[in-house]
Design a protein that fits this description.
Strand content: 25-35%
Shape: elongated
Strand order of the largest sheet: 3-6-7-2-8-1-9-10-11
Order of helices and strands: EHEHEHEEHEEHEHEHEHEHHH
Radius of gyration: 22 Å
Number of helices: 11
Number of strands: 11
Structural class: alpha/beta
Largest sheet: 9 strands, mixed
Oligomer: single chain
């Protein structure tokens, strides 16, 4: 089974849930940190990295000696990654989304694709959790193409057992890439107006993908009950509430797992997984 841990906005406790669920379950499990612009699951799990693989993305290269400057390549590109100005073709690799459309439409076949480095994927193991595998992506500074790096991270999903994906925040392409095709999405939010606003956007994205999902409310008690009311209206199960607790905040600031500081949470996270299994199985049986 593959579970994505997502949130509408950053800072809601998504990584706290992902890493503590991982530490509570252990066994045949893989945790993949797909928040490639700012991965931080390693701060809590402290993996030993034993392999680093580059991630490249194809970008256009133009043989201008054959180009007729018809502008078909420029017209098909929705990201402004290639422009034709008079008798000159200019490419902007940092804007290219590697769709290959420019090469396909070029009538002179003067556009080829060359690899451009955009990041790396690191994989390793956890000394404190035998059997658990770890992977994360790192997008190069200045790059904007997170989805190819996330796709490369997801090639390390477990063939058997459980995979937990720490997804990027937001509702755009990176989080869609991290959630697509997973069995269940855990949405982590906080009970504030900002949290509710971004949660509603994230839930709409999950619905478009047709993925079963549930909610964890972090820092419960600091805001209001609007998130709960929304969950009830939308029939979204609330899997857990993590209280607004100074001890939890201090553990996070030290880079400690919640289940290490407050061991009673280990059984709570195990119970969450049991709930998710039931929701997934019930959905498949329906």
């Amino acid at each position: 089974m593959i579970i994505s841990i997502a949130s509408g906005k950053g800072g809601t406790g998504k990584t706290t849930v992902a890493t503590n669920l991982c530490a509570s379950l252990g066994g045949t499990l893989t945790l993949l940190d797909c928040d490639v612009e700012e991965p931080n699951a390693h701060l809590f799990l402290k993996p030993s990295i034993n392999r680093t693989d580059p991630v490249n993305a194809p970008v256009p290269e133009v043989d201008e000696s054959r180009c007729t400057h018809c502008k078909k390549c420029m017209d098909i590109c929705r990201y402004g990654a290639i422009a034709v100005a008079g008798k000159k073709v200019v490419t902007f690799p940092e804007l290219c989304h590697s769709c290959g459309g420019c090469a396909i439409v070029c009538p002179e076949k003067c556009i080829t694709e060359a690899d451009r480095s955009i990041g790396v994927v690191e994989t390793g193991t956890l000394a404190t959790l035998p059997g658990v595998k770890f992977g994360r992506g790192l997008l190069d500074i200045g790059q904007v193409m997170a989805p190819p790096v996330i796709k490369q991270v997801r090639t390390h999903e477990a063939k058997e057992g459980l995979t937990i994906i720490d997804a990027p925040p937001g509702t755009s392409c990176p989080v869609i890439t991290a959630m697509k095709g997973t069995d269940f999405v855990v949405m982590v939010t906080e009970p504030t107006p900002f949290g509710l606003h971004d949660l509603t956007l994230a839930v709409e994205a999950v619905k478009v993908l047709g993925l079963p999902h549930g909610l964890i409310i972090n820092r419960a008690g600091m805001g209001n009950d609007e998130v709960k009311a929304y969950a009830q209206r939308e029939n979204i199960p609330i899997l857990m509430e993590i209280p607004f607790d100074k001890r939890i905040a201090m553990a996070y600031s030290r880079g400690d797992l919640l289940v290490k500081t407050l061991p009673e949470y280990k059984d709570i996270f195990k119970a969450i997984y049991t709930k998710i299994e039931k929701l997934v199985n019930d959905g498949r049986a329906a």
